[in-house]
Amino acid sequence: MTEDFEVGEFDPEFVENLGNDNETASEEEDGEKPRVKVKKFQLCPVSMKEYIPCLDNVEEIQKLNSTEKGEKYERHCPDSDHGGLDCLVPAPAGYKVPIPWPKSRDEVWFVNVPHTRLVEDKGGQNWITKVKDKFVFPGGGTQFIHGADEYLNQISKMVSSIQFGRRVRVALDVGCGVASFGAFLIQRKVVVLSVAPKDVHENQIQFALERGVPAMIAAFATRRLLYPSQAFDMIHCSRCRVNWTRDDGILLLEVNRLLRAGGYFVWAAQPVYKHEEALQQQWKEMEDLTNSLCWDLIAKEGYIAIWRKPLNNSCYETREIGATPPLCEPDDDPDKVWYTELKACISRLPENGFGGNVPTWPTRLHNPPDRLQTIQMDAYMSRKELFKADAKYWNELIGGYVRAFHWKKYRLRNVMDMRAGYGGFAAAVSDHGIESWVLNVVPVSGPNTLPVIYDRGLLGVQHDWCESFDTYPRTYDLLHAAELFSSERKRCNISTIMLEMDRILRPGGRAFIRDTLAIMGEIKEVADAMGWQSTMRDTPEGPHASRRLLMCEKRLLRA
Hints:
Blueprint: H1 12-16, H2 27-30, H3 58-61, E1 107-109, H4 117-122, E2 129-131, E3 134-136, H5 148-158, E4 170-174, H6 180-185, E5 191-196, H7 204-211, E6 215-217, E7 232-238, H8 246-258, E8 259-268, H9 270-273, H10 277-292, E9 296-301, E10 304-308, H11 314-317, H12 363-366, H13 383-405, E11 414-417, H14 424-431, E12 437-443, H15 450-455, E13 459-463, E14 476-482, H16 484-488, H17 494-504, E15 505-516, H18 517-529, E16 533-538, E17 547-553
Helix pairs in contact: 13-14
């Protein structure tokens, strides 16, 4: 091991197995089980070049009793015998290495996302244009055709307490278009998760990710979004095509669950400023609903209205008996989100104020959040000590990666940590000045640490790696997986996870997999069968350690 790749005196098993409920079998316990040799995986048909298994399951969607509430835009995953991925999703003809950040904010290759529907529908609104072999993003939107910067300046002037990059650090942009709102907030030190369904404008999330902007496919329909309560300091909707008042406001109640105590909801829409009778009726319904949620309308100017969520439950508790919508039952868990139906009730805020009193950015990145205490896990030391040990471990480890593997020379823009824990990997990436954003994935099989991740000012989502992830193919530059396979091996097939990694990784993208020696041989075998270039390395703990590091690079395979 080189000195560049050494870390301090930590027990990696202690840190990387943080809260792991699935016991990891050692090589001695598990032995070398005979395995069927993995055959080389073939390319999928060209028609599957943008295949998203859980969103393109036509057979299951056709069985739905109703689609009027957007059910067809939600997850409907195939089982392994009916449509599960068993091949390598191909790139489109002529695929090019993506334009690097920050240039990609303003232009991407047409051949990588060869769809002109948005140009035809939204070109006149300054969203997107096609210039020769590229798509160009002027920075406008339906309600901000003069550019996102001017629009953001207007919001800042309307409400001085918003303080982008300090008090507002994490935001959600609903129905994001090509994500220019999020793209231009990056320079103000705000991370915005841009979300939209795969609907008639189905490639908007694909454009966002190709630009290097955080984004996920997600729909306000019948289930909770896969983010925790009090996740976002601001939620933004500019002509986002969501009927917030339908079904007694159940969709705005979901916004209320996601919004941090004291957070802001920004609505730019025709009912705010137009005087037609139908639109004024919509405004009246929105006023009545937000009043019932105890939101304070703090600014209304031109086509923008801004509300603020209360800091505690006192307003809710002083409403008249029988007021609607009701408060959720005390035993409702607002952080339970995996395949959880929406609830027509107001999520209660913690009486102790947890989640609502986070420090300003960047202090919050390293400050142990209050909600650390709410995580259900077995630990023999205090959670704060655990948090600090985890942060120090990852900071030194990523420092080693930067020095030994020259991470700053890689084009690492879109990064995913597939088993994120407290978000220590993402925090270390930020601390070491790597110009990336990280999506922290918290597996459903372990403790739900998402509230801690968001309280730190980072992005995250809950997911089950036995199923497909809600993103387009070829959208990530780096996938990081620490102890993922050993923790999920009793639940998921290794090749299922690896094929999904191949689907979402860009050609030329990299995967860093840290796991136990007992399972690493099988992982490498699957990586080789997928055509990845892979190299096994010792971890910083040395050649006799129980873990190895598999460094992989995905190659561009042609049909």
